[in-house]
Amino acid sequence: MAAVNMNSEKFNEMIRGDKPVLVDFWAPWCGYCRRIGPAYDRIAQQMDGEMVVAKINIDDEPLIAHQEQIEVIPTLVLYRNGEVLGSIVAPESKARIEQFIEESLV
């Protein structure tokens, strides 16, 4: 399954669940965001059922980006039960995203 595109309603609802939610804050004009996109989509397929893998376009949802204090994109944030478990800015590879997830879920 591909990454889920979130709006503010979905975001606020999903991050409060007990299933981990990985959110990629990105924008279509961000070259690095587009470059890491395919790796992120592979993570979404790989983690299907274990966690929610989602994307938020900061141009479409600037209030969420501001609320979550996103200053640089791409930023990946891992949530569970409404809490931030960790974040990473501009991961360089799929392996680095996997490592971030593993370290954050300990």
List the helices and strands and how they pair.
Blueprint: E1 4-5, H1 8-14, E2 21-26, H2 31-46, E3 52-57, H3 62-67, E4 75-80, E5 83-89, H4 94-104
Parallel strand pairs: 1-3, 2-3
Antiparallel strand pairs: 2-4, 4-5
Shape: globular
First CA to last CA: what distance?
A: 24 Å
Count, helices: 4
Number of strands: 5
Ranges where pLDDT stays below 50 over 5 or more residues in a row are none
% residues in beta strands: 25-35%
Structural class: alpha/beta
- Cross-sheet strand order for the largest sheet: 1-3-2-4-5
Q: Could you tell me the radius of gyration in angstroms?
A: 12 Å
Mean pLDDT: 95
SSE run: EHEHEHEEH
Largest sheet: 5 strands, mixed
Can you give the helix content as a percent range? Answer: 25-40%
Outline:
The chain is of the alpha/beta class. Helices cover 38% and strands 25% of the residues.
